[in-house]
Each structure stands twice: as structure tokens, then as C-alpha cells.
Amino acid sequence: MRFAVIYPLIALFIFFRLIWPAFRNKRTRAMLCALVIPGALFPAVARFAGGSMVAPDLPQTVMIVGGLLQNITFSVFVLTLFREAISVPARVFGLPLAALGKSTTLACAIVALAVAAAFYGTRQAVDVLEIKRVDVEIANLDPRLDGTTIAQISDLHVSSAFRKDRIERVVREVNGLNPDMIAITGDFVDGLVSERAEDLAPLKELSAPLGVWGCEGNHEHYVDYEGWREFLPTLGVRMLYNAHAVVEKNGARMVVAGLVDPMGALRYDRELPDSAKAFDGAPENVFSVLLLHQPKFALRVGSKADLILSGHTHGAQIFVLDPIVAKLNQGFVKGLYNLKDGIKLYVNPGTDVWNGFLLRIGTAGEVTLLTLKRAQTH
To answer: Does the structure show a pLDDT above 60 at 281?
Structure first.
């Protein structure tokens, strides 16, 4: 619902700070308004015509085109805001740059760049999928586990924007890596089981000798939580709700644990994440991996793990948002982090994104292949 309110306000800002000062011709103003307004109104369309802002049930083409229009509006806003950040101080100090706000040439450049960025960013969000290989050095790793591979996917956000064909592609990429284990770190889906079960069905084809494991994300709590909690295991995904399991490779044991997402407790009076419960009864002094959707809780609940796998941040989606996303997530945005006591954290930037913001610039959907390496001692 917030986007349905925020985007019309963004459109007003664009009109009064870009269109009105820089363009005198009424027809030009009308054309630019026609470019900006559809994207500003699309979140409201998704909310009221689609039945839900979180998980609108609209045709895929409508979602992607609407997302593109929304991205045009957003991109014009960001570039105009950047211009303001330069021109307003210049106006205060009487510098020649104060005229930037009335420059028709600059305004045209902003619009053109915004449209190009929106097309590029929308394609990055809905089509591009990258494979990233990461070596993770673990102190005192059992030599028998050296070279063990874990394929991680996260934030699939299956919805009316990301359908069955996208998940089939993800599954092909993951299986093609021949990982020892597969981890899915939350935000599987947006929508009802009755609407999205078929789109998520290709996950049944995922295969790894040490199993396919998952933890819930915050989005699982928003729509049909009990339904998804019952359905996801039917796909062959072993979901870990404050629980662990023990697997074995080459005679060496590994612990894989998962936590529930705190959103369930904060908004719906559901269970809190509990690492003590998750690791209760787990063997000591063996390598352990923890699936935790939101990385900002890693320092608080991950002390029993050697490797924590998270998602949630979508890698900020746009590079200019990195500082904001970092602030909201204890400094964690994407990639590999070294925590205290030799604990490693990997934040997957999202295999996909939420359908309400189909934009990526500086990031791409990712399938991660993590290879465990015994850390060299000096």
C-alpha cells in the first residue's frame, strides 16, 4: 500500500521540479506527464486490480510492462533528485550551476537517461541470471569435507511476474553445477498455494547428494503461511524451522540448520528464531551451516555456525541504494563476509526480486556455488 501512495507523490515532485520549470510548451508538458503518470499509478492498479500489493494476481505481461513504467517514473525521480542535490546548494551560494533546474537540455537528458536505465534495469531484473563461484575458507574444516560444494539460491519470489519458466531455468542452472548440497534461503513465493503451486513445481527436479534444504523468509508470512508450510516439503525441499539435520560425506558429518524468520513473531505472533533450539542435540565440533534469511540477525544468532547463508537484501538492487540497505542490515548487502570467531556469512543478492520493484542496476539475479576449503594455517 505504501507504493500506491509514494509513487503519486514522486510524480508530483517530478512535475513541479522537472517538467514545469524546464518546459514551457503545454504539449511537451502533457507528453512528459503521460510518460510519468502511468508508472506512478501502477502500484495502485496492482493493489486494487490484482487484489494485493505484495502478491497481485495479474498477467505476467501486465506485471512486467507495469514494472517498466514504474521504473521510468522512479528513474526520472532519482535523476531529478540528483540534479537538485547539485543545483539547490549552487542556488544558495549564487553559483552559475543554479540555473540547472530550468535547463531544458538537462531535463531532456534526464528523461532520456531515465528511460534507458528503466529498460536496462527491468531486463536485468526479469531476465538476467548469473552463476557466481565462491571459495569459502573454513578453519579446522574436516579434510574429508574439503571441496564440498553448496549451491545457494534465494528470494525466488515466485509470483505473477516470475513464473514456471523462470524457475525451470533456475533449476537447470543449479543442477548443472552438480552441487553436493542445495540451500534455498527464503522468500520462495508471493501468493496463494492455489495460485502459485504450479509455478513453483519445478523445484521438485532439484537434486543433490546431501539434500535440498530451505528456510523461510519474511514473504512466506504475508500470504498463505500455513498453506506454504505444508506445501513446500512436497517439492522435496527439507524445510528447517528452528531445527537441524546431520548429513554425511566421505564419513565426515555436517550439520545443516535453519531458523524461522522474525517477521512471523513481529507481525503474526508466530515463533521467534531460536538458534539454541535449532542446534539442540547437534553434534559438537563438526562443520555446521546455518540458513538464515535476513543477514542482519547473523551476529546475534549465528554463533554456533561455521557458515551462514542469507538473502533478503537483493544486493540493494540498485548500486545507489547500497548505503541504505547496508544501514538496514548491519552492514551486510551482498557477497562474503568474515564475522567474529572465524564465522563466514554469504549474502546471496537474490535469484529474483519482489514483483513490486522489478529493477536491477549494478546487480543481477544469482545462483551461487560455494566451495568449502580448509583454511591454510601459517
So the answer is: yes
CA distances from 38 to 33, 43, 47 (A): 9, 10, 14
- The predicted-structure confidence for 199-249, as pLDDT tens digits, reads as follows 999 999 999 999 999 999 999 999 999 999 999 999 999 999 999 999 999
Q: CA 219, 222, 226, 231 torsion: positive or negative?
A: negative
Calculate ∠ Cα 238-135-335, nearest 5°: 75
Query: Does 129-374 carry CATH code 3.60.21.10?
Result: yes
Tell me the pLDDT tens digit for each residue of 346-358.
999 999 999 999 9
Pick the closest to residue 52 from 156, 192, 167 (CA basis): 192
Structure-block grid coordinates of residue 19 = 517538467
Q: Which three cell numbers stand for residue 306?
A: 561455521
Q: How far apart are CA 348 and CA 134, in angstroms?
A: 11
Give the pTM: 0.94
Cell matching residue 95: 553559483
Residue limits of CATH 3.60.21.10 in the chain: 129-374
What are the phi and psi torsion angles at 328 (to 5°)?
-80, -10
pLDDT of 253: 97
